[in-house]
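Quick one: co-fold with succinic acid.
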Amino acid sequence: MTSSLASFSSSPNAHILLLGMGGTIAGLADDPQTAPDRYEAGRVSVEALIEQAGVSLPSGLKVLARQMANIDSRNLSELLLTRLGNEIKQSLENPAVIGIVVTHGTDTIEETGFFLHAVCGNRARELGKRVVLTGAMLPANAPKADGPANISDSLRWVASTSEDSPGGIFAVFAGKVCLARDLAKRHTSALDAPLQDSLCSPIRLIGPSWLASVREMQASAGFDLAIPAETDWPWVEILMSHAGARSDSVEHWASSGVDGLVIAGTGQGGYHQSWRAALEKAAGKGIAIVRSSRTGAGPVSLDLAQKGDFGTPSAGDLSPPKARIALQLAIHSAGEAKKIAQTGANYLTWQDFFARIAVLPEIR
Ligand code: SIN
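Sure, here it is.
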């Protein structure tokens, strides 16, 4: 199945919104010919990137660019996620916006992709609009810069009116498209690093099985979570289990004021037995604890009772950084639900919210 482009001349203000967040795609190397890998991310404006991409769109369709930030994404903050999420949520409701492309650093693009999927994926699907995250592995002035092709592919996918182009939150790299929820950077330098291990389709030849799996995943999403205000994000840390792990690290975090902990466990999401008592004590104090895996692929088992776990929820197939975002959103949503519930009434807990965003897509 091939994608097609429509004419948008009937709506004079129709445009694609291009939001710049920074990253290598906006990076510059001092000596691009001999050392393209020595560069500073976030130095080129998003307006300049669109010019460099030189994309030709259907007649009547414009691209409006807005610089949200220009950072190396290792410095991504929750404050920026809130601003980006709110901008996208509002823009989706604007009839003149036919879709949105976000240029982003690849180092933490999986966090942003998962966040957007959780807070506005459902609405984008209902409206039939696509939000596409993209970036690059080579800086803008490298001889074989991959950013221009990634931007051009993203804009075309957003503008496509083919029925092979459903609404939702996606990512495009190296000629491939995947659900943004599935992003996970698994290589330090490969051009397709952010989606190497994801379920993808070639962008110019959308595969029917990929499309079916996208629709199935989206059908299980059901609802969007609230976006926390800039300073309202719960504090959640990631704790990796490893050989020689000591209870001291769990005890340290349990007394820090943290709201939640994501265990980056071994194998199926297990952890060192030296952590068991300290983790159970932390959970007893009200710290939200979930299990993910440090392996890099595959789901975490739902129940690890046989390995001595005391019932910590599984993060499904979410990587530790994505599980962290999911837990932050779940704790925040549960707090909001509690505020509005009548005294004595039942309300959804963080475990309920977390299971819906992390585990339901796995057990559907
Ligand atoms: C970044 O994440 O901002 C730098 C690395 C990249 O974009 O590939």
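If it helps, Residues 1-9 have pLDDT under 50 and may be disordered.
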